[in-house]
Please model this.
Amino acid sequence: MATTLDATVRKLPAGGCAIDIQGDVTAESEAALMEAFTNACQDDAQTVLLNFERLEYMNSGGIGLLVTLMVRASRQGQRLAATGLSDHYRQIFELTRLDEAITILEREDDLLSTEHPT
Amino acid sequence: MDTTDTTDQTQGATPRRATSRSEEVDFWVQAVERVSAGAPPSEAPNSPGRGRASPPPGFGKLWQRTYRARLSGTSEQARAEFDTDGLSLTVTTPGGRSFTGFNTLAVRADGEELVIEITALERSSDPLSELGLALGLMHRLEDRFWARVLRAVAVHFASEPPSAIEMRRVVVDPRRQWRHWRSLGQNAALRSALDAGAGPWRWFRPLKQG
Model:
């Protein structure tokens, strides 16, 4: 099974950017994910929303990538949020304590009602 | 290699790529608030009861260490087993250890060779451990420890140990998270030292009570 990730960037109506993730997030996804993140930050977006609705698989290498992404965002004064996580991956975010640094949202619209909207 | 045998409720783990979503769910351990390690050996008095850890709440710089060995002379069967997806297993460190983060062991086939790779993504847990890193002592200990682990894993797949181990160490985040300095109180080495230091007091206490 080949590991593939399709990460596309779009602007959010409320400000900020979303990265729609489709496929697998593993250590091999680094180039695609980092490129998408760079593109998302071109307009100085204060919030980058990771949309996992079409995520098929994520392993520990992918979790490591998210940690790296989190560090990059923090350095640039941005915050990361995630939406579309299944119960399973939500539990993994809790297990790895990523939920302490990445805001988990039920829906994309919830970005507007969170503590630090863009 | 059945990775499920190596995981338990004390550590988080991501074994090999699952073939279905339900199987994948089975391969991740459930989240726990507190580590339960059963009855600890007498020389490890403070391992149970610690919370799980990961890079976000650590103290020191965030490092990524990679240790890689290429094994030649492996059987065709072993290479075929890892040909398509490889295998990976991750453990998250329990609180109280010097480092907080994820350690991933991955095995994959690359042509006639098997590649074994260990990736540690971690921060030091507290100021004392960070000082050890700054002095270089902890780096040497970590390098020696993971090289030994790599060689130990290698003997399962090849008749000869790897001729060389590639090591790479990069700083992912150079900032220290001073708000977590209090985790020093959970430093297992420090607590063990204090426990050992209190030994004489425990020996004499029954005499005083008697």
